[in-house]
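I'd like us to work through together how a protein chain folds, taking it slowly. To get us started, please write out a protein record for me. Go ahead whenever you are ready, and we will take it from there:
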Amino acid sequence: MAWNDLPRNQQLAVLVLVPLGVVLVFGYLTMGALEELGPDPALDPVGFIQSDDSNSLYAEIEELDTEITKLKAEVKQAPKVAARLAALKEKKRELEDAIPSEKEVAQMRFWLENAATTIDPELGELKQRSSRVKDEGAGSGRKRKKSDFMAITWDMTFEGDLAAFLFYLDTIEDPAKAPRFMEVKQINITPGSVQADIPTGQIQREPHTFDISVVTYVYDKGNG
């Protein structure tokens, strides 16, 4: 049927209903898109666009923006973190280098004993009377990993003058002089007796006795 053949009221109905239908379909589609998109967080809620759906695209975009901002801040800190890590690694290397390996224990014992013979005579005399090594792992029955630290203790006894002994202590605890890390854990001083020789009028002094325990820690660096 041609358009001109339609009654006047049908023509009016078509002219009204068709555009209205198009508007309704467009509105429906738009509403679906707006609901999926969600409200723009930067704008105040207006009319029917007031959804707070956390699954909306705007919410996802905002979440990604927050994560990006955090990552950018972490990236800015990366050089500082890398520098700090490098400093810690260098410090660890220095400390490990200061600790002897098991192969160096005999050399350290020789150095400890020899250091007592190199004291300036003007400070007095210091003679070693005994030396004994204690290994915390020996006879303990504990299975030790090669990367474990293990204490080595030298129990030594000296006789001599106090000034010479103090110089010896300074030598073995000075990192610039000692070949590896070591520390004095225990000191016991027994003063020498003093006697007067009445016929000659001279004072006879016996040497002091010094008992010390020197400790170092063995670390197998090749298997750490």
About this structure: The chain has a mean pLDDT of 75. DSSP finds four helices and six strands in the chain. The two ends are 96 Å apart (CA to CA). The first helix runs from residue 8 to 37.
